[in-house]
Design goal:
Layout lengths: L3 H9 L20 H10 L9 E3 L4 E2 L3 H7 L3 E4 L14 E4 L5 E4 L5 E3 L5 E3 L11 E3 L7 E2 L25 H15 L4 E5 L25 H10 L1 H25 L7 E5 L13 H22 L3 E5 L8 H6 L4 E3 L10 H8 L4 E3 L8 H4 L2 H15 L5 E2 L12 H14 L4
Parallel strand pairs: 3-10, 10-11, 11-12, 12-13, 13-14, 14-15
Antiparallel strand pairs: 1-2, 4-5, 6-7, 7-8, 8-9
Helix pairs in contact: 2-12, 6-7, 11-12
Length: about 425
């Protein structure tokens, strides 16, 4: 049996070796629940309903039998609560608008939108206004923006800090217990803590809160980065203080050597053709707070630190390195200026590429299995030279992706590794 943990650690140390595979360890490296079900059928595994581990994007849990078949090398430990503010527990059957029966948490409570779609309610509380909407022909939820009128004369940063708090002791204990369980699988372990992502636009609207206060509208938040900079900085200051305390407590409770990486922040800085944050703005508003967290992690743990940012972020990679990040995900090679060869040549010895293995905008969903194979082999050839590459698609594998293409992707990595 291959040594998954050492395979990942070699990649993180920028040492040549077989390419490790990650699917399902985080909410940004997963697969849609329909794809997980299709893979179970494709490989002839026991037919059973798939658990929705992340309801916002409707990601499916990749259980141990499927993880073994796919050759997955990474296991994840995240927050107890989902994006809608409830834990996954006491599973029940639910039928989704596309016809699939899945298992969801007992707190997954929805109401019809009157047009064949669903509204989902934060913390499972049907008396609270819905915070997510799945249209009839969709396969995941969109955030419902619940923005009260903004009075600039009475804005209080505490209103945007409602979701950031010291972790309960029971949650600290859960991290310690779950890290040990995941490490016992022989896979590398990546963890994520709530509250470390600065201005993550998926979190700003507060889909997990019943009645969010402060600036929650996406457009208003982006405007605030320029027009209300002191307000945003005050949020980041207090958020960082809380995050550092939570990091200290979790690090003190877990087996630090059992953890290989931590995802610190999922804030997207890129678009398809450029960034919406200048280098100067990044350095003045984001970098000082990132550095306080990354400096502490590097000083007190062996963990490598992941930064997730979709889009054309090549111009920001030097700044991400200055901010203390070791890993970039999802490596959106389909964006402008993100050609694999250029990225590897310029940054390959300094940052780990966790993703970028196949294009999820075109090749994986719309190409042929042979086209998928060819692209995966080429990406592995480029990114894996001298290590520094962990295979994952560019962000999550989306619904309606042909199962033959997903299987071709996995088989191509095995082929590259000489395991066929």
């Amino acid at each position: 049996m291959k040594d998954s943990r050492e395979r990942v650690r070699r990649a993180l140390r920028h040492e040549a070796g077989p390419v490790p595979i990650d699917f399902g360890s985080t909410a940004i490296t997963g697969m849609h629940v329909s794809c997980v079900a299709a893979l179970r059928d494709h490989y002839g595994l026991e037919r059973r309903l798939v658990k929705v581990c992340e309801p916002y994007q409707m990601l499916g849990e990749i259980e141990e039998d499927l993880a073994g078949v796919l050759g997955i090398d990474v296991a994840g430990v995240g927050s107890r609560n989902t994006m809608f503010g409830f834990p996954n527990e006491n599973w029940k059957i639910a039928r989704m608008p596309w016809g699939q029966e899945v298992l969801v948490s007992e707190h997954f409570r929805t109401t019809p939108d009157g047009r064949g779609g669903l509204f989902i309610h934060p913390q499972g509380d049907l008396s609270a206004p819905p915070s997510g909407h799945m249209p009839a022909r969709s396969f995941f939820f969109d955030t419902v923006i619940r923005q009260a009128p903004i009075d600039d004369n009475h804005l209080n940063p505490e209103d945007n800090l409602e979701e950031f708090a010291p972790l309960p002791e029971a949650e600290i204990e859960r991290y310690a217990r779950t890290v040990n369980e995941k490490a016992a699988t022989g896979r590398a372990v990546i963890i994520g803590l709530s509250g470390t992502g600065l201005g993550d636009i998926a979190l700003v609207p507060g889909p997990f809160l019943k009645r969010p206060r402060g600036i929650r509208d996406v457009q208003e938040w982006y405007l605030s980065l320029a027009a209300r900079r002191d307000y945003v900085a005050a949020i980041f200051e207090r958020q960082t203080e809380i995050a550092l305390e939570n990091l200290r407590r979790v690090a003190a409770a877990v087996d630090r050597d059992a953890i290989d990486a931590i995802i610190l922040c999922g804030t997207d800085f890129g678009m398809q053709r450029g960034t919406f944050c200048s280098v100067d703005d990044f350095h003045s508003l984001f970098l000082p707070f990132y550095r306080r967290m990354t400096d502490w992690i590097h000083a007190h743990t062996p963990w490598k630190i992941m930064k997730h940012s979709c889009g054309a972020v090549a111009s920001l990679i030097p700044s991400l390195l200055d901010a203390g990040f070791d890993i970039l995900n999802p490596v959106q090679c389909s964006a402008e200026g993100m050609a694999p060869e250029a990225l590897k040549k310029q940054f390959g010895g300094r940052i780990v590429f966790w993703g970028g293995g196949v294009d999820t905008q075109r090749t994986l969903p719309f190409g042929t299995p042979q086209q998928v194979r060819e692209e995966v082999l080429r990406r592995c050839e480029v990114f894996s030279e001298n290590g520094g590459f962990i295979f994952n698609s560019i962000h999550n594998v989306q619904a309606r992706t042909p199962v033959e293409n997903i299987a071709a992707m996995i088989e191509a990595v095995r082929e590259f590794n000489g395991e066929r």
